[in-house]
Every structure is written in C-alpha cells, then in structure tokens.
Amino acid sequence: MAKAIRSNSGREITDRTTRIPTADGPRPGEVWLVGAGPGDPGLLTLRAAEALKRADLVLHDALPGRAVLRLLHPRAERVDVGKRRGAAPVSQAQINRRLVAAALAGQRVVRLKGGDPFIFGRGFEEVEALDAAGIPWFVVPGVSAGLAAPAAAGIPLTHRGLARSVTFVTGHDAEGALPDWAGATGTVAAFMALSRLDEVAVALIAAGRAPGTPVAIIAAASTPEQVTLRTTLGRCTLDAQRAGLPTPALVVIGEVVGLAAASARGAGVKAAVA
Ligand SMILES: C[S@@+](CC[C@H](N)C(=O)[O-])C[C@H]1O[C@@H](n2cnc3c(N)ncnc32)[C@H](O)[C@@H]1O
Question: For the chain, which end, N or C, has fewer CB atoms within 10 Å of the first or last residue's CB respectively?
C-alpha cells in the first residue's frame, strides 16, 4: 500500500477515497450522478448501463436520448426534468429537493445527465444539496460531447505542432455573459454557443483569432441526425443560419479542424458550406 504523504505540519494530505462507485448500482438511500454520454447508447460506460438497470428512480435531462432510456428497469420511475421549449422548466431547487426526498425515502436514485455530469451539467449544485442533507452520492463520469463530437467528425482536439491545449467554454453563463476568450489558446470547444455564434465569432476575432480560422459545428453528434458544418470564424454565423442545423451542437474552433477537412474521411461529415 502506498505511504501516506504528510504536509509540513504532519497532516495527512493524500486521499485514496473515490467518488466513482465500484458497485453495479446505487444502494437504497444513495444518489448516483450518471453521465449518459452524447446520445449513442454504445458510448455509455458499463457502470452507467448497470446503474440504469438497477435504479428505482431516474431523474433525467432532455439530452439523454430514448435509446439510452430504454435501458431502465421497467419498474423504475422515470422523471424528465429537462428544459423543454414551451413547457414550464423544473427549477434546480425542485430537482435538488426531489433527489433529497427520494434518497431519504430509501430509493436507489440515478440522476442522469447528458455527456459528463461535471462538464457544464450543474452536477455539483446537486452534490451540494445532497451533502447538506447528509446523503451519500457518487459520480459515474460520462463521455462528454466535448470529446465525442470532435471524434465523431474526425477532428483531433490536439495535434503536435498545431494545438497544444484545448479550452472547453460555454457560449453563455447563467447571467448570459460571454466568457473571456482572450485566455482561450489552442483549440476551443464551445458548448451552448450556436444561438450566440455571431457574438462568439466577433469576440474571438477581437481576441486575436484570424477570420480564416477553421470552424466545425458538429450537431447531434453520435446520433442518426449527426451533421458537421465546416466553415471559418469569419463566415460561421452566415453558414450556420443557411444550414439550419439540428441541436444540440458543439462548435470547435482552431487549426485542427482543417486536418479533418484535409483527410475528408470524418465519419458522419455531411455538409460542407463553402
Ligand atoms: C448543458 S450542456 C451539457 C454538456 C454535457 N454535460 C457534456 O459533457 O457533454 C449542453 C451542450 O452540450 C453540447 N452537446 C451535448 N450533446 C451533444 C451532441 N450529441 N452533439 C453535439 N453537441 C452536444 C451542446 O453544445 C449542448 O448545447
């Protein structure tokens, strides 16, 4: 067994606990935050699939598709807490309360989120509510769209000599403000950015990116509707408007996008607007 590492004051500063569960599914009174991946059930982890089969209650977002939800046990209660156009949204506070109440009632609870629960998924807000109520929680990481969508389009996020870093950003935060793009060097993978693509492109150009920088918008990655639009920073708003892409979509910006275009073998690449 590895030796404990201590700080100068003698306090042990190593920690071997893990929040990734080792059981097949939640025990009564536990909540598991489970990543559903980008849509294709084949991209679920084995642990996520087992957890779905064993849960009494599954609270899920709009993103996990029907194919993933088919894995639930027929007796499991399934609650859709995702945002729907035209429907009253379920607030984060309501979700937190439901999770806590179900766990206190002894249910085996799965909170299923698209991609990875801790990437732009508000996962830790739920953890804080569970901690406050003394409820054991675990997290099953998922394949984030930030990884899956570029892969689906044959785009490497890093490449020797072209991109030594990747920045995951959100197109908007809770207050609606755009992030500070100046710090985003290398490849940029922007979540929730399609509706504000004009502002994103202008801000990135203002931060020093060339208007000719290659951009790929990968929509509905890993689903039968997947389509990739290849464009540039200077043209992406217009091209995206013309293409009428499905949602959700990830916007990848950087020289690596040009590599996939050159290879012209990116799986699922359908549209290329000149
Ligand atoms: C609220 S965020 C959740 C991200 C998620 N936690 C993850 O790790 O992928 C939703 C955004 O993820 C991206 N996204 C999720 N699934 C996607 C998919 N199948 N194809 C492309 N983008 C996707 C889109 O940018 C979408 O607006």
Answer: N
In 3D space, the residue among 114, 126, 124 whose CA is nearest the CA of residue 35 turns out to be 114
- Per-domain residue ranges of the chain: 2-143, 146-273
Please choose, from the candidates 237, 235, 233, 274, the residue with its C-alpha nearest in 3D space to the C-alpha of residue 257: 233
Question: How far out from the chain centre does Cα 139 lie?
Answer: 14
- Centre of ligand 1 from the C-alpha of residue 193, in Å: 10
Closest approach atom of ligand 1 to CA 146? 9
Question: Tens of pLDDT along 224-242?
Answer: 999 999 999 999 999 999 9
Q: 2-143 falls under which CATH superfamily?
A: Tetrapyrrole methylase, N-terminal domain (3.40.1010.10)
Architecture of domain 146-273: 2-Layer Sandwich (3.30)
**Is residue 1 within 8 Å of 32, Cβ to Cβ?**
no
Question: For position 270, what pLDDT does the model report?
Answer: 43
Strands (E), 143-206: 166-170, 187-191
The token pair at 2 is: 């590895």
Q: Low-confidence residues of the chain, pLDDT below 50? A: 265-274
